[in-house]
Give the backbone structure.
Amino acid sequence: MRVPTAIAVTSADLVLPAPDRHTPGAALLHPPEQLDLESALAETGALLERHGHLVALVPPWLPRSTVQRLHTVRAILETDRIALLGIDLPPLGTALLVRQLRQLSVCDFSPGIIASAARLLSHYIYAGALLGSVAKLDRVRVPVGLGAHARSWSPSAQFAVLAHPKPHLAKLAGGGGSQGGAHGPRGATLPAGPEFATHLTFARGQLASDWVTAELAPAWQVQGVLENPLPAASPGWWGTPKLVEFAAGIPDLTVLYQLVASVRREECRWCGLELIGDRCGFCAAPLTAPPPPANTARSRP
Protein backbone atom coordinates (compact mmCIF):
# COMPACT_ATOMS: atom_id res chain seq x y z
CA MET A 1 0.00 0.00 0.00
CA ARG A 2 1.37 3.39 -1.03
CA VAL A 3 2.13 5.75 1.86
CA PRO A 4 1.35 9.40 0.99
CA THR A 5 4.16 11.94 0.82
CA ALA A 6 4.33 13.71 4.19
CA ILE A 7 3.18 17.35 4.20
CA ALA A 8 4.77 19.21 7.10
CA VAL A 9 4.19 22.45 8.99
CA THR A 10 6.08 24.16 11.80
CA SER A 11 3.03 25.06 13.88
CA ALA A 12 -0.07 23.04 14.74
CA ASP A 13 -2.36 26.03 14.12
CA LEU A 14 -1.53 25.80 10.39
CA VAL A 15 -3.38 22.48 10.14
CA LEU A 16 -6.99 23.02 9.03
CA PRO A 17 -9.59 20.27 9.56
CA ALA A 18 -9.59 17.62 6.86
CA PRO A 19 -12.46 18.07 4.36
CA ASP A 20 -13.02 14.29 4.20
CA ARG A 21 -11.90 11.07 5.83
CA HIS A 22 -9.35 10.37 3.08
CA THR A 23 -7.25 13.51 3.61
CA PRO A 24 -4.31 12.79 5.92
CA GLY A 25 -3.13 15.12 8.63
CA ALA A 26 0.06 17.14 8.50
CA ALA A 27 3.37 16.30 10.12
CA LEU A 28 4.54 18.78 12.75
CA LEU A 29 8.21 19.79 12.70
CA HIS A 30 8.79 21.33 16.10
CA PRO A 31 10.76 24.62 16.32
CA PRO A 32 14.10 24.83 18.19
CA GLU A 33 12.53 26.16 21.39
CA GLN A 34 10.42 23.00 21.64
CA LEU A 35 12.85 20.32 20.46
CA ASP A 36 16.64 19.96 20.53
CA LEU A 37 18.60 19.15 17.38
CA GLU A 38 19.12 15.47 18.17
CA SER A 39 15.39 14.96 18.68
CA ALA A 40 14.58 16.96 15.54
CA LEU A 41 16.87 14.70 13.51
CA ALA A 42 15.16 11.62 14.91
CA GLU A 43 11.71 13.14 14.25
CA THR A 44 12.49 13.98 10.63
CA GLY A 45 14.30 10.69 10.02
CA ALA A 46 11.26 8.75 11.20
CA LEU A 47 9.02 10.71 8.81
CA LEU A 48 11.31 9.95 5.88
CA GLU A 49 11.45 6.27 6.80
CA ARG A 50 7.68 6.03 6.88
CA HIS A 51 6.70 8.34 3.99
CA GLY A 52 9.75 8.34 1.74
CA HIS A 53 9.57 12.07 1.00
CA LEU A 54 8.75 15.16 3.04
CA VAL A 55 7.32 18.46 1.76
CA ALA A 56 7.42 21.42 4.17
CA LEU A 57 6.21 24.97 3.59
CA VAL A 58 8.69 27.64 4.72
CA PRO A 59 6.95 31.04 4.55
CA PRO A 60 9.15 34.12 4.97
CA TRP A 61 7.39 35.13 8.19
CA LEU A 62 8.74 32.11 10.10
CA PRO A 63 11.27 32.95 12.85
CA ARG A 64 14.83 32.83 11.55
CA SER A 65 15.77 30.17 14.09
CA THR A 66 13.02 27.87 12.78
CA VAL A 67 14.14 28.27 9.17
CA GLN A 68 17.77 27.62 10.13
CA ARG A 69 16.75 24.48 12.00
CA LEU A 70 14.94 23.10 8.94
CA HIS A 71 17.96 23.64 6.69
CA THR A 72 20.32 22.26 9.34
CA VAL A 73 18.31 19.05 9.68
CA ARG A 74 18.22 18.53 5.93
CA ALA A 75 21.96 19.16 5.64
CA ILE A 76 22.91 16.79 8.47
CA LEU A 77 20.66 14.03 7.14
CA GLU A 78 22.30 14.55 3.71
CA THR A 79 19.05 13.76 1.94
CA ASP A 80 17.42 15.03 -1.22
CA ARG A 81 14.04 13.74 -0.08
CA ILE A 82 13.10 16.88 1.88
CA ALA A 83 11.50 19.80 0.00
CA LEU A 84 11.56 23.17 1.77
CA LEU A 85 9.19 25.39 -0.19
CA GLY A 86 9.35 29.16 0.19
CA ILE A 87 5.71 30.14 -0.39
CA ASP A 88 4.82 33.76 0.42
CA LEU A 89 1.24 33.72 1.73
CA PRO A 90 -0.34 35.09 4.92
CA PRO A 91 -0.68 32.53 7.75
CA LEU A 92 -4.28 31.45 7.05
CA GLY A 93 -3.60 31.30 3.31
CA THR A 94 -0.57 29.13 4.08
CA ALA A 95 -2.75 26.79 6.13
CA LEU A 96 -5.20 26.55 3.24
CA LEU A 97 -2.41 25.64 0.81
CA VAL A 98 -1.16 23.00 3.26
CA ARG A 99 -4.61 21.41 3.29
CA GLN A 100 -4.72 21.32 -0.52
CA LEU A 101 -1.34 19.59 -0.62
CA ARG A 102 -2.57 17.12 1.98
CA GLN A 103 -5.54 16.38 -0.30
CA LEU A 104 -3.27 15.82 -3.30
CA SER A 105 -0.86 13.62 -1.36
CA VAL A 106 -3.26 10.66 -1.56
CA CYS A 107 -3.47 10.89 -5.36
CA ASP A 108 -1.20 9.12 -7.84
CA PHE A 109 1.19 12.07 -8.12
CA SER A 110 4.90 11.55 -7.47
CA PRO A 111 6.56 13.53 -4.63
CA GLY A 112 8.19 15.87 -7.14
CA ILE A 113 4.82 16.80 -8.67
CA ILE A 114 3.26 17.41 -5.26
CA ALA A 115 6.14 19.67 -4.22
CA SER A 116 6.14 21.74 -7.40
CA ALA A 117 2.32 21.93 -7.36
CA ALA A 118 2.52 24.22 -4.32
CA ARG A 119 3.57 27.21 -6.43
CA LEU A 120 0.81 26.52 -8.95
CA LEU A 121 -1.95 26.20 -6.34
CA SER A 122 -0.83 29.32 -4.47
CA HIS A 123 -1.90 31.43 -7.46
CA TYR A 124 -5.50 30.30 -6.87
CA ILE A 125 -5.67 31.34 -3.21
CA TYR A 126 -7.29 34.66 -2.28
CA ALA A 127 -5.99 35.75 1.11
CA GLY A 128 -6.81 38.89 3.07
CA ALA A 129 -8.13 40.31 6.31
CA LEU A 130 -10.49 42.82 7.83
CA LEU A 131 -8.28 45.13 9.91
CA GLY A 132 -8.90 47.74 12.57
CA SER A 133 -5.63 49.49 11.67
CA VAL A 134 -3.28 49.62 8.69
CA ALA A 135 -0.57 51.64 10.44
CA LYS A 136 1.88 48.71 10.21
CA LEU A 137 0.60 47.12 7.02
CA ASP A 138 3.41 48.34 4.74
CA ARG A 139 5.61 45.48 5.91
CA VAL A 140 3.42 42.95 4.08
CA ARG A 141 3.71 44.72 0.73
CA VAL A 142 0.19 46.14 0.61
CA PRO A 143 0.32 49.81 -0.47
CA VAL A 144 -1.09 52.11 2.21
CA GLY A 145 -1.63 55.80 1.44
CA LEU A 146 -1.22 58.66 3.92
CA GLY A 147 -4.99 59.04 4.15
CA ALA A 148 -5.46 55.42 5.21
CA HIS A 149 -2.68 55.79 7.77
CA ALA A 150 -4.43 58.85 9.21
CA ARG A 151 -7.82 57.11 9.33
CA SER A 152 -6.24 54.20 11.21
CA TRP A 153 -6.23 56.36 14.32
CA SER A 154 -10.04 56.42 14.34
CA PRO A 155 -11.41 53.91 16.91
CA SER A 156 -14.16 52.77 14.52
CA ALA A 157 -12.04 52.49 11.37
CA GLN A 158 -12.02 49.16 9.55
CA PHE A 159 -10.22 48.21 6.34
CA ALA A 160 -10.74 45.35 3.92
CA VAL A 161 -7.34 44.19 2.67
CA LEU A 162 -6.54 41.63 0.00
CA ALA A 163 -2.88 40.60 0.16
CA HIS A 164 -2.91 37.83 -2.46
CA PRO A 165 -3.06 37.32 -5.40
CA LYS A 166 -3.13 41.11 -6.00
CA PRO A 167 -2.72 43.60 -3.12
CA HIS A 168 -5.69 45.90 -2.57
CA LEU A 169 -6.96 48.03 0.31
CA ALA A 170 -10.35 49.66 0.87
CA LYS A 171 -11.75 51.50 3.87
CA LEU A 172 -15.21 50.24 4.73
CA ALA A 173 -18.14 52.56 5.23
CA GLY A 174 -20.08 52.27 8.47
CA GLY A 175 -17.19 50.68 10.37
CA GLY A 176 -17.17 47.44 8.36
CA GLY A 177 -19.95 45.64 10.24
CA SER A 178 -22.89 43.88 8.67
CA GLN A 179 -24.42 47.27 7.85
CA GLY A 180 -21.27 48.64 6.27
CA GLY A 181 -21.05 46.51 3.17
CA ALA A 182 -18.02 46.32 0.94
CA HIS A 183 -18.27 49.92 -0.24
CA GLY A 184 -16.21 52.67 1.30
CA PRO A 185 -15.83 56.40 0.71
CA ARG A 186 -15.59 57.58 -2.90
CA GLY A 187 -16.75 54.19 -4.16
CA ALA A 188 -13.82 52.21 -2.76
CA THR A 189 -14.60 48.50 -3.04
CA LEU A 190 -12.96 45.19 -2.45
CA PRO A 191 -11.74 43.76 -5.78
CA ALA A 192 -13.70 41.04 -7.52
CA GLY A 193 -13.28 37.65 -5.94
CA PRO A 194 -12.26 34.34 -7.54
CA GLU A 195 -13.88 33.41 -10.85
CA PHE A 196 -14.05 29.78 -9.79
CA ALA A 197 -15.78 27.80 -7.06
CA THR A 198 -14.21 28.29 -3.62
CA HIS A 199 -14.76 27.75 0.08
CA LEU A 200 -13.94 30.55 2.50
CA THR A 201 -12.03 29.98 5.74
CA PHE A 202 -11.86 32.79 8.30
CA ALA A 203 -10.40 33.33 11.76
CA ARG A 204 -11.31 35.99 14.30
CA GLY A 205 -8.78 38.09 16.15
CA GLN A 206 -9.61 40.99 18.47
CA LEU A 207 -12.12 42.56 16.08
CA ALA A 208 -15.87 42.20 16.51
CA SER A 209 -17.35 42.17 13.01
CA ASP A 210 -19.43 39.85 10.87
CA TRP A 211 -18.40 41.56 7.62
CA VAL A 212 -16.56 38.52 6.29
CA THR A 213 -19.55 36.20 6.60
CA ALA A 214 -22.32 38.75 6.00
CA GLU A 215 -20.79 40.75 3.14
CA LEU A 216 -17.65 39.20 1.66
CA ALA A 217 -18.82 35.58 1.43
CA PRO A 218 -22.04 36.45 -0.50
CA ALA A 219 -20.18 38.92 -2.74
CA TRP A 220 -17.63 36.27 -3.68
CA GLN A 221 -20.37 33.62 -4.03
CA VAL A 222 -18.41 31.07 -2.02
CA GLN A 223 -19.85 27.58 -1.72
CA GLY A 224 -19.04 27.14 1.94
CA VAL A 225 -17.72 29.00 4.98
CA LEU A 226 -15.55 27.55 7.76
CA GLU A 227 -14.37 29.30 10.92
CA ASN A 228 -10.97 28.35 12.28
CA PRO A 229 -8.85 29.54 15.24
CA LEU A 230 -6.54 32.41 14.35
CA PRO A 231 -2.92 31.29 13.68
CA ALA A 232 -0.49 32.68 16.24
CA ALA A 233 1.56 34.36 13.50
CA SER A 234 -1.37 36.32 12.05
CA PRO A 235 -1.33 39.44 14.31
CA GLY A 236 2.38 39.93 13.57
CA TRP A 237 1.94 39.37 9.83
CA TRP A 238 -0.92 41.88 9.54
CA GLY A 239 0.57 44.35 12.01
CA THR A 240 -2.38 44.34 14.43
CA PRO A 241 -4.34 41.90 16.64
CA LYS A 242 -7.57 43.70 15.65
CA LEU A 243 -8.42 41.59 12.62
CA VAL A 244 -10.52 38.90 11.02
CA GLU A 245 -8.34 36.94 8.60
CA PHE A 246 -9.81 35.10 5.60
CA ALA A 247 -8.65 32.87 2.76
CA ALA A 248 -10.60 31.42 -0.16
CA GLY A 249 -9.45 28.45 -2.21
CA ILE A 250 -10.53 25.47 -4.29
CA PRO A 251 -12.01 22.81 -1.98
CA ASP A 252 -12.75 20.02 -4.47
CA LEU A 253 -10.02 17.38 -4.82
CA THR A 254 -11.23 16.53 -8.32
CA VAL A 255 -10.67 20.10 -9.48
CA LEU A 256 -7.28 20.29 -7.74
CA TYR A 257 -6.24 17.03 -9.38
CA GLN A 258 -7.29 18.18 -12.86
CA LEU A 259 -5.52 21.50 -12.38
CA VAL A 260 -2.21 19.84 -11.52
CA ALA A 261 -2.58 17.00 -14.03
CA SER A 262 -3.19 19.44 -16.89
CA VAL A 263 0.31 20.91 -16.59
CA ARG A 264 3.10 19.35 -18.64
CA ARG A 265 5.43 17.17 -16.59
CA GLU A 266 9.20 17.44 -16.89
CA GLU A 267 12.16 15.65 -15.35
CA CYS A 268 14.53 17.57 -13.12
CA ARG A 269 17.92 17.71 -14.83
CA TRP A 270 19.66 17.61 -11.44
CA CYS A 271 17.86 15.10 -9.17
CA GLY A 272 15.71 13.31 -11.73
CA LEU A 273 12.36 13.82 -9.98
CA GLU A 274 9.24 14.78 -11.88
CA LEU A 275 8.14 18.40 -11.74
CA ILE A 276 5.69 20.89 -13.15
CA GLY A 277 6.53 24.53 -13.70
CA ASP A 278 10.05 25.90 -14.02
CA ARG A 279 11.76 24.72 -10.82
CA CYS A 280 12.17 21.50 -8.85
CA GLY A 281 10.60 21.60 -5.40
CA PHE A 282 13.21 19.31 -3.85
CA CYS A 283 16.59 20.46 -5.17
CA ALA A 284 15.42 23.93 -6.39
CA ALA A 285 17.20 23.43 -9.71
CA PRO A 286 15.62 25.39 -12.60
CA LEU A 287 14.07 23.39 -15.41
CA THR A 288 16.52 24.76 -17.95
CA ALA A 289 20.19 25.55 -17.46
CA PRO A 290 20.99 29.25 -17.11
CA PRO A 291 22.56 30.88 -20.17
CA PRO A 292 26.36 31.27 -20.18
CA PRO A 293 27.81 34.67 -19.22
CA ALA A 294 27.73 37.20 -22.04
CA ASN A 295 31.53 37.48 -22.30
CA THR A 296 31.89 33.67 -22.49
CA ALA A 297 29.28 33.46 -25.25
CA ARG A 298 31.10 36.12 -27.31
CA SER A 299 34.48 34.38 -26.99
CA ARG A 300 33.22 31.13 -28.49
CA PRO A 301 33.89 30.58 -32.23
Observations:
- The radius of gyration is 21 Å.
